[in-house]
Design a protein that fits this description.
CATH class of the largest domain: Mainly Alpha
Number of strands: 3
CATH architecture of the largest domain: Orthogonal Bundle
Shape: globular
CATH topology of the largest domain: hpI Integrase, Chain A
Largest sheet: 3 strands, antiparallel
Helix content: 55-70%
Structural class: mainly alpha
Radius of gyration: 21 Å
CATH superfamily of the largest domain: Intergrase catalytic core
């Protein structure tokens, strides 16, 4: 079931989301921020139907405390552009005021931190209202790390995407609309197969491989919150910085390149394979890890 909107902008928010879907964008790209905007307007600007400069700046400023201003700027700029495109009077957030930040180095887990983290997932506390959760957490994060998946990819996996006979997983409708099939370590697929049997007993008609308690797909917020809970339980701490779910994908790429280096492989020849496996739109995205490999390597303890 989709999100429900209540403000004077509700109709146009739904219209923008449908418009983005037609263009191939995922609803999650804007739904979360626009729902937040909708609630903000319902509280502070009830019945207002014109996107003004005052409302735009007030909502962006409201996100500073949680360091969400940059996301809000992008979302509200897109919403303003959409309103103008359908003939509505609206303020478009100026691009020159957007917060442009350079991507920092990802958090690289050392061997001890990895062991601590996955040990924490194995001992994730059970909940009476979500009996499958303690089985889901150890598998979903191991799968993301071992296959270098994007967080949204592992959340959206469907049961039909798994071929246990061939040890492969099909990633469909991913970023840039690039589908791909991943060869997966047999031991990991055995773990997934065992999980599938448990999940099937609780959700016999499920669509998603990792179903939420309602049977639907887990949200971005759930994955992030669960990751941080596991990190807290691991005892790794935050002295070296903050680790987030996407860092599991970064670690997969970096460790793969480091292993190939140790094996004496020609990285220029192997980069295209890694790029295809990770679903990068161009080789340039994969060379991000190659260019910074020596810097990253020095951060491993």
């Amino acid at each position: 079931m989709g999100r429900i909107f209540y403000s004077g902008f509700a109709t146009h928010i739904c219209g923008m989301i449908e418009f983005k879907k037609v263009l191939g964008h995922k609803p999650e790209s804007y739904e979360w921020d626009l729902q937040n905007f909708d609630r903000f307007c319902s509280r502070n600007y009830p019945n207002t139907e014109i996107l003004t400069k005052e409302i735009t700046f007030a909502w962006c400023a409201d996100g500073k405390e949680d360091q969400k201003s940059a996301y809000r700027m992008k979302a509200i700029r897109e919403f303003g552009k959409y309103l103008v495109s359908i003939g509505k009077d609206a303020f478009i957030y100026p691009s020159e005021l957007m917060e442009h930040t350079k991507a920092g180095l990802p958090y690289l887990l050392n061997d001890t931190e990895l062991q601590n983290f996955f040990s924490a997932t194995d001992h994730y506390p059970s909940r009476s209202n979500s009996t499958l959760l303690e089985y889901t957490v150890p598998v979903i994060f191991r799968l993301q790390y071992a296959c270098g998946m994007r967080p949204q990819e592992v959340r959206r996996l469907k049961r039909a995407n798994f071929d246990f006979r061939k040890d492969t997983i099909y990633i469909s409708e991913s970023k840039w609309c690039k589908d791909r099939r991943l060869a997966v370590n047999h031991e990991l697929m055995v773990m997934c197969h065992r999980y599938d049997a448990v999940a099937h007993g609780m959700f016999p008609d499920r669509l998603y491989f990792f179903p939420s308690q309602s049977g639907g797909m887990y949200s971005h917020g759930w994955l992030t919150a669960t990751f941080h809970k596991c990190w807290e339980l691991s005892g790794n701490g935050i002295t070296r910085g903050k680790c987030v779910p996407y860092d599991l994908r970064h670690n997969f790429a970096t460790r793969t390149l480091m292993r190939w280096t140790e094996e004496g492989k020609d990285l220029d020849a192997y980069i295209p394979y890694l790029s295809t496996y990770m679903g990068h739109a161009t080789f340039h995205s994969t060379y991000y890890y190659y260019d910074k490999k020596n810097i990253m390597e020095s951060k491993l303890l």
